[in-house]
Amino acid sequence: QLVESGGGSVQTGGSLRLSCSTSGYTSRLYYYAWFRQVPGKEREGVAAINTARDSTDYADSVKGRFTISKDNANNTLYLEMNSLKPEDTAMYYCAARIAASCPGDALHASYYTVWGQGTQVTVS
């Protein structure tokens, strides 16, 4: 249902763009987000977008470096990652919340019910 791509290995300071196909979720009344997880740690919210309000939220650790966007015409969610650091290394997941609103922090994983399989990002 959600399919990520674009992960890979990159050197410190480099850039990557992750993509997530959201075919099947064409309504604009959704929240979409990117999360990341490393083994042994909880899944961390990285960036979220409310496509109805065109508003975004970012984790403090990625503000100014990462940009989330949604191409509604192509049903694709993106995460542009610049100035990558080794601590950005993780499995990255896209997620969707099938609701017009979010009762709390849009970067909290519990609010999302649809998940992709993940794409690995390694920064060295």
Keywords:
4-stranded antiparallel β-sheet, mainly beta, 0% helix, 124 residues
Structure report:
There is one protein chain. This protein has 124 residues and is mainly β. The protein contains no helices and eleven strands. The strands form two sheets. Strands 2, 4, 5, 6, 9, 10 and 11 form a seven-stranded mixed sheet that branches. Strands 1-3-8-7 form a four-stranded antiparallel sheet, with no helix packed on it. A hairpin with a 4-residue loop joins strand 5 and strand 6 (55-58). The termini are far apart.
Described by strand count, sense and barrel closure, the largest sheet is:
7 strands, mixed
Poorly predicted ranges:
none
Distance between the termini: 31 Å
Whole-number mean pLDDT: 93
What is the radius of gyration computed over CA atoms, rounded to a whole number of angstroms?
13 Å
Number of helices: 0
Shape: globular
Residue share in helices? under 10%
**Percent of residues in beta strands:** over 45%
Structural class estimated from helices and strands: mainly beta
What would you say about this model in short?
The chain is mainly β.
